[in-house]
Structures are given as C-alpha cells and as structure tokens.
Amino acid sequence: MRRGFVPAGRGPSPRLHPPVPCGKLGRPGSRPMLHLPLTHPHGHRLTHHRAPERWSDGFPLGNGELGAMLWGGTPALCLTLDRADWWDLREDRGYLDQPEWSYAGLRRMVAEGRFDDLRAVFEERFAADNPVGPTKLSLGRAELPLPADSRVEMTLDLDRAVVTGRIRAGGREHALTCFVFRDRNVLALALDPWPAGAAVRLVPLAETCAALLALGHPPPRRSEDGDLSIVTQTIPGGPSCALVWNATGPEVFVATETGDTLAEAEERARAAWRAAAEAGLATLREAHEAAWERFWSSSGVFLPDADAERMWYYGVYLLASCARRGSTPPGLQGLWAMDGVIPPWRGDYHADMNVQETFWPALGSGHLDLLDCWCDHMRACAEPAREFTRRFYGTEGTCWVCSTVPDYTLVPCWWTVQVAWSNSGWLASLVWHRWRCSLDPAWLAATGYPLVADIFRFYRANLEPADDGCLHVPLSSSPEYRENLPAAWCRDPSIDLALIRRTCAWLIEMEQALGRDELSADAARVRDALPPYALDEHGGLALWPGQPLDESHRHPSHLMAIHPAMDLTREGDDTERAVIQASLGRYCALGQWQWAGHTYAQMISLAAVLGRGG
C-alpha cells in the first residue's frame, strides 16, 4: 500500500510499504483473565480529612444510570444528583435553511477568505438560535443541613463503591454511610445516630442555576405523602422524572426514575423507594458490594507503586460508575453534571479525543460491556448521522462530527473541529478495538462492521483525486491547532490520513472475518491512493503539508499515525523509526507549557507502544 512521506519543501514521492502489524489484541486461544478476589493487598481508597467545600472535590458515586457527587459538610452535606437520560434535546434547526450551510459552502468561504461569513453561518447562527440548549441537565442537589461546628471525614472505598466516615457536631459523633446501589436507581444515605431535627431536602435544578431558566421548563411539582417527599419535573417534549425520598433517617433512600409522563415516573420511583426501604440498608449494601465484587473479579492489576495502582482502579471505577450497557453514554462530565452551572460544552460527546479516552479503560480492563454503552449509542444514531452526511456533504456514508448529544443532536463547537474528518476515524478505532478485544463475530456483524463500513463510505465519497494520482482530503483541520482561526483550515492533515488509512485496513480485516467481500477492493484502492505523510524540516510528522508543529500544543493529533492508529511502528523499517524518533523529539522539545492533563495520558500511551518506560 502507498504510504511514504513528503519531506519539507518537496513534492509527493510515495513509495510502497508492506502492511504494518496492528497489534496482538484478542488473539484466539489466549489465556483467560484471572478471577481476582475483592480483597487486595493495597486497598483502593480515597479519603477527605475535612469536608470538600466544592463540587469538583467531592466523591463520585453511580451505577451507570444514577449518579451522585457527595461533597460539602457545612452548612450542609450535599449530593448533586444526575441521571444518564436527563438531557434537554430541543433544538432550533433554522440554521439548516441557510443557503451556504453545506460542505461545498464551507469550502467556498475558506477559498475566498470569507471567514467572518463562515463564523456567522456555521457558529454564530446556531449559538444564537440555541443559547442554552441542547444540554445535559442535573436533577438538582439534595442537602442535609448540619451544625456550623460540624467536622467531616469520609473515605471512598473504590473496591466496594461505598463512602463511609464520621461527622462530629454538637459534641456527638455520627457514623456516615453513602452509596448508589449498583443494580437499582436508589441512593442510600445513613447517619447513626441521626442528627436531631435534621432532614434531607432537595434544591431543584432551577434553583441552583438561574441561567437554565431560559430553557422554559415548567416548575417542579412538590408533594408530601406521609413520610415521603416527592419532586417531579418534565422536560418539554422530553421525559419526565421523579425523585422520592424519606427526609429523615437514620436510613434515607432517594429513588429516581423517568417515564413518558409525570404519573409514570412517580409510580416507578415510589416502587423503587418502597423496595429499598423494605430491604433495608444492610441488605442493600450486602447486595451492592457483591455486585461490585463480581465486577472487579474479571480483571485487576498489581503494581509496586500503590498510587499508580490506585489510579488504575480509580479510572476503571469512574467508567463503571457512569456507563452501563443499555443506558445513555456519559458526556464530558460523566454522570456528575456540575453543580449550579450550565455544563461546559453542554456536557456533550466530544469525538476529537474525549469519547475515545473515556472508554479506553473498558478495553484494557476487559469490561467490554462498558464500551458497548457507546457502540450501541453509535448504532442507534447511525441513521441521523447518515441524514446529516447526506444534507451537509451530499453523499453516502456517516460523518461523525465532534460535538453532539444524544440522538446525534448537534451542539455549538468550533467548526474547524466540528467537521474535522478525523472524528469519524477516531470513533472507528474505538469500534475496531472493541472487535479485536472480543473477536465476537455476532457483535461484528450486528454492530462493528456496519459502523466502520459506513465511515469508510463517507471517506470514499468525499476524497478528491488530483493530478498527482492521489486521493486528497480537500478541507479539514488538525483538531484544535489554531483553534477556530482561519489558519486552522487545511488540506491533508496527517491525523486524517492516518485514520483513513487505518479505517481501510480495519474494514478489510472485518470483511475477512465475516467472509464478505463487498468493500475490501475499494478500501485497498483508497488506502493505496492516499498521499504520503508530510514531514517537517527535522524529519518528523508535520501537521499537514507545509505546516510543522511550531508551538507547544495540548493535542498531539498529528502523531496519530504513531499512536493510537499505529500506522507507523517501531517494528517498521529504518525510515519509519527515524520519523517516529524525530516526531516525538520535536513534540517534546517544544515544551509542556500548553499541555493539558489528557496530553500527559496520551504521551504516556505513546511511550508505551514505543517500548519506553519513562
């Protein structure tokens, strides 16, 4: 297949390469994972020796459908509540009627230098018509007022997903227990003894974030039924939700369910609360811990560095707490919508890195059902994604844009990033890894292959031939380099070429596994016709032809060919190894001053595939 490189200042000079090995994941006949006991020599715990004063410092709890962030202490112990399916998806779609709202219109504006018009059509109009929603929502905040002299200490046991601790107030000590039940949408909170006169109250979302009043939701309905407190809320055109709880303890259960109507949601929540109250906290906790023990028994790591090991368990714990097959996938804030503010970026699905890194732990830990939460979502959104592609590009296939919320609903984003072609291939890589880690032909036929095949169809339909004999990406970007400035638009970014090339290889492999031969010939043709990677003056990967990386940058997107696409590997020839060495050297030489937390994670992963331990 044609891969080659374009040195700085030179024209295309493609050359033939043998296929690059794509790893050894999921080989048939490999040894099964060890089943490890819950008891671990290190124990995996996080402790607050004083009350976390901010939401962001709290303890996240969840079961993939119901999430709660436990924080605070004075003047109240707080639980910010969230549901996976609690989104306002209403959208003003008037922006679609603009004559130039299309890929062809976008290309004309870039070619003519009409960047103010571009922003007006593709960014400002949408934001003006949709100033607050579509967006993720929280359910509000449950509060247990405490005396001003309260002192709180609590520990999150990651192995059991339970917070325990103690609260000292008024000369007394109260034992604290809190968890979100693994298999029911119920939160359990206990204080023993229960503080005299204390009662749990709910502050609805509308009272915690005034900006969200612009959504025009009807006010929540409050009612009492004996010892039960009930709050119901409806999203216009969307679901209804109910919260049911007993306000006083020593054992408090908060149940939440959704339904098509307020009555249906309330009936379900009452039933969930009643079942929890009848079982009691001790019985619920025993079943809850047993469920987490079954979860952890499928895989584990034992590391000499206890902190590093704890971080592995914490990462898997977070994903398992906010994702569940059959539930709506978690967005940018997981299952813990931020308290009292509009979720940044609407809490969306960001496909230029965030979605992929969120679900990576499902692969290495063997919990593929957590990744299925996302893959099933893609399958459910395939038709609206195809409709977007037909309308915007005028072609077949599916283009997965960067920023969406459930039902493939678009939300505001820089359009340099929104329509970067790499988003689609990035998601194809996640689907391919799901297949390689399972080698499940039924899953491949039903989910994996259709998703990757339609992404390939999008690429095939929109690549453009040129006089050099190559197929080119006519307009895209290297995500977030130059942000949404005119200089961000480009042709043939390295990240796109790497992912298109690998998408072709993944598709061929999938068809071979299924005994099919529908697209393989076209995939091989497209792969071989892509232009070679452009190199900078140091011999490393450029962002695109003529554009070297010239500043410290948080997204090592142009290194995609090295990792995670792994089109260039250390097992390749001397030329490939030299390109890898120069690319990594250049990226690190520019310094870390613009790196973000995710940058370090990506660079650690890149070092690992190159066999570098540090």
Task: Give the overall average pLDDT.
Answer: 91
Counting helices, strands and paired strands, the structural category is alpha+beta
Question: What is the strand content?
Answer: 15-25%
Strand order of the main beta sheet, please? 2-9-10-11-12-17-16-15-14
Short description:
The protein is α+β, with helices and mostly antiparallel strands and 614 residues long. The protein has helices at residues 103-112, 115-129, 205-208, 262-279, 281-296, 306-322, 354-364, 368-380, 382-392, 415-418, 422-438, 441-462, 494-514, 520-529, 574-589, 597-609; strands at 5-6, 45-48, 59-62, 66-72, 76-83, 87-88, 135-136, 140-145, 151-157, 162-169, 172-180, 186-192, 201-203, 221-225, 228-234, 240-246, 251-259, 349-350, 403-405, 409-410, 464-465, 471-472, 533-534.
Write up this protein:
By secondary structure, the chain is α+β, with helices and mostly antiparallel strands. 36% of the residues lie in helices and 18% in strands. It is built from 16 helices and 23 strands. It has helices at 103-112, 115-129, 205-208, 262-279, 281-296, 306-322, 354-364, 368-380, 382-392, 415-418, 422-438, 441-462, 494-514, 520-529, 574-589, 597-609; strands at 5-6, 45-48, 59-62, 66-72, 76-83, 87-88, 135-136, 140-145, 151-157, 162-169, 172-180, 186-192, 201-203, 221-225, 228-234, 240-246, 251-259, 349-350, 403-405, 409-410, 464-465, 471-472, 533-534. The protein has a nine-stranded antiparallel beta sheet with strand order 2-9-10-11-12-17-16-15-14. Strands 3-4-5-8-13 form a five-stranded antiparallel beta sheet. A hairpin with a 3-residue loop joins strand 3 (59-62) and strand 4 (66-72). Helix 1 (103-112) packs across helix 2, helix 7 (354-364) runs parallel beside helix 11 (422-438) and helix 13 (494-514) runs antiparallel to helix 14 (520-529). The two termini are 33 Å apart. Mean pLDDT is 91; it is low at 9-39.
